[in-house]
Write a structure and sequence with these properties.
Blueprint: H1 3-16, E1 33-41, E2 46-54, E3 63-67, E4 70-76, E5 85-86, E6 92-94, E7 97-102, E8 108-116, E9 134-135, E10 140-142, E11 151-154, E12 159-160, E13 163-173, E14 177-180, E15 186-187, E16 190-200, E17 203-206, E18 210-212, E19 217-219, H2 225-246, E20 255-259, H3 264-270, E21 275-278, E22 281-285, H4 289-297, H5 299-314, H6 329-349, H7 351-366, H8 386-404, H9 406-418, H10 425-434, H11 439-450
Parallel strand pairs: 1-13, 19-20, 20-22
Antiparallel strand pairs: 1-2, 2-8, 3-7, 3-11, 4-8, 5-7, 6-7, 9-10, 10-17, 11-12, 13-16, 14-15, 14-17, 18-19, 21-22
Helix pairs in contact: 1-9, 2-4, 2-5, 2-6, 4-5, 5-6, 6-7, 6-8, 7-8, 8-9, 8-11, 9-10
């Protein structure tokens, strides 16, 4: 296929769909602000915190969670007045965190706490996962899932306020660099980190190298120039596609974080990898060089890496600029990012790569023996598991594009970005109408592709 001809639909769509300014983005729900200080010692596994959380949701101001390995010394309000709390005896538990109940709600919650965790310098632990407060002998890794900072908690919905703006002073004895998700890494054992955007707050303190390019930051691993260039150029290509398609520049660029897991010796023996993405961080066990190797190898290996990176970069739009809420949360967060990744894959790797990937998604849906929730009937109680979020949801968006055309679909995606999260089907359709999708076309899509949780359009 002529590459210039292949780009024409995207270019035409970009011209027809209005660009989005920061001012046009929706007013986001109030997000917590986390302030204070945390001190870590990677030689002893000790953690000391003196942290305040303000601006929590109203229904989450009487409870908070904190990692079960951390001990609360005292709780005060914003004026320094002691606040009574329960949680020592017969405590509630939410995953890796203990649930604390305040004697009375407070709009500003301040918690002093301390704890110590095992060290695994031989990397011979039985396991490792995102909820661990992990000390491997030369680094410390805490994700938002580990609840290393107090998080407001809604006990009825069992939802933590895991994303927060922050202004934190962090010290790490034994660290050569410090990194908080959403802020530039700093060289040194202490520093102040601030973010006006709500982030899942991840902390990594280590002793390895830092490589910075205009497109990426690589933490805790040194890569040859060719591999750094492979990562940088791929990220730039994805950023160009996403920015053009969504009509807003992609301000976040990923930080690739190499982590030596607590059970790395077992992973190396088995040849297994583990990773997670907490945008803009993409963390991987073993070596980031494996990603670059795939990109340099070309073919389907490279295609898979391009799609994955493009998905995670899509979360700058759906997850950072727009923070989804309500019954369509998972579709807006994950299916939208997956849809954007397929658009990027098609433009960067070509039609054959994108068609092959989409065919794989459809094959997975075809194998489903249990009905999927109908998109036009989902509500807050609908179970939208991984199959729905990453496979079925993106296929629905692709089927809508096929029916209404690329230009209107692009306008619809920009409309989703610019609008508050729809709470029902009528509000979702209103965004579509505003994007130029008429009621007849919308209803035809609903009837032929959506109704009853169809596995394929009819």
């Amino acid at each position: 296929m002529n590459p210039c001809k292949a780009l024409l639909p995207a270019v035409v769509a970009a011209l027809l769909a209005p660009a989005i300014s920061q001012a046009a983005l929706p007013a986001q729900p109030a997000t917590p602000l986390t302030t204070g200080s945390v001190r870590v010692d990677i030689a002893t596994g000790r953690v000391d915190g003196d942290v305040c959380v303000s601006n929590a949701p109203a229904n989450a101001q009487a409870h908070f969670v904190l990692n079960a390995g951390l001990n609360v010394a005292r709780v005060t309000d914003g004026e320094g007045k002691p606040v009574g709390f329960d949680g020592w005896y017969d405590p509630g538990v939410d995953g890796e965190a203990r649930v604390y109940t305040l004697a009375e709600p407070t709009p500003k919650l301040c918690v002093q706490y301390v704890g110590a965790f095992p060290l695994y310098p031989k990397h011979d632990a039985l396991g490792d996962f995102k909820g661990m407060m992990a000390f491997n002998g030369d680094s410390a890794r805490f994700t938002e899932q580990s609840a290393w900072l107090p998080q407001a908690f809604d006990p009825k919905a069992r939802v933590r306020s895991s994303q927060s703006r922050y202004d934190l002073q962090v010290g790490c004895a034994g660290c050569r660099f410090l990194y908080l998700n959403g802020s530039p890494a700093i060289e040194g054992a202490q520093g102040r980190f601030r973010s006006d955007n709500a982030r899942p707050i991840l902390l990594f303190g280590g002793s390895g190298p830092i490589t910075r390019t205009a497109q990426v930051t690589i933490l805790n691993e040194t890569l040859p120039a060719a591999k750094v260039e492979a990562l940088s150029s791929t990220v730039q290509k994805v950023a160009d596609v996403h920015s053009r398609y969504m009509g807003a520049p992609l301000a976040d660029r990923p930080t690739f974080l190499r982590m030596v897991t607590l059970n790395q010796i077992e992973r190396d023996r088995e040849g297994s990898e583990w990773g997670f993405a907490t945008w803009p961080t993409i963390a991987m066990s073993g070596s980031i060089g494996n990603v670059a190797d795939s990109l340099l190898a070309g073919g389907e290996q490279a295609d898979r890496r391009v799609q994955y990176i493009a998905h995670e970069m899509g979360h700058y739009y759906f997850g950072t600029l727009n923070r989804p809420q309500g019954p369509y949360f998972w579709v807006l967060l994950e299916s939208s990012a997956e849809f954007l990744s397929i658009k990027a894959l098609r433009e960067i790797s070509g039609d054959a790569a994108a068609d092959r990937y989409v065919a794989g998604l459809q094959a997975a849906v075809d194998k489903q023996s249990t009905p999927l929730p109908a998109f036009d009937a989902i509500d807050g109680s609908s179970d939208l598991g991984e199959m729905y979020r990453y496979v079925y949801g993106p296929l629905l968006l692709l089927s809508l594009e096929k029916q209404v055309g690329e230009a209107k679909m692009q306008a619809f995606m920009r409309g989703l970005l610019a609008a508050p999260s729809p709470t029902n089907w009528k509000e979702l359709q209103a965004i579509a109408v505003k994007a130029g999708i008429d009621a007849k076309a919308w209803e035809h899509w609903r009837a032929s592709c959506v109704a009853g949780g169809r596995q394929r359009c009819q």
